[in-house]
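tool=predict chain=A
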Amino acid sequence: MDLTWINDFLLTFRCPHTHQPLRWALAEDLQRHGLAAEEKALVSEDGTRLYTIDNGIPVLLPQEV
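tool=predict ok
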């Protein structure tokens, strides 16, 4: 699935809980949150909040981590 459109909006996406900027999750971020390395997700700047991508759409619902 083509996720390149997310890059166009990445500077405007914010963590709904901390209001920090979001970035693409690295393999170590995914591992820390219990996801496989091949998954795609966004993570808060400090790496504490992770947001999965479901059918090409980032799920930015605030949830307790």
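The chain has one domain: 5-58. The chain has two helices and four strands.
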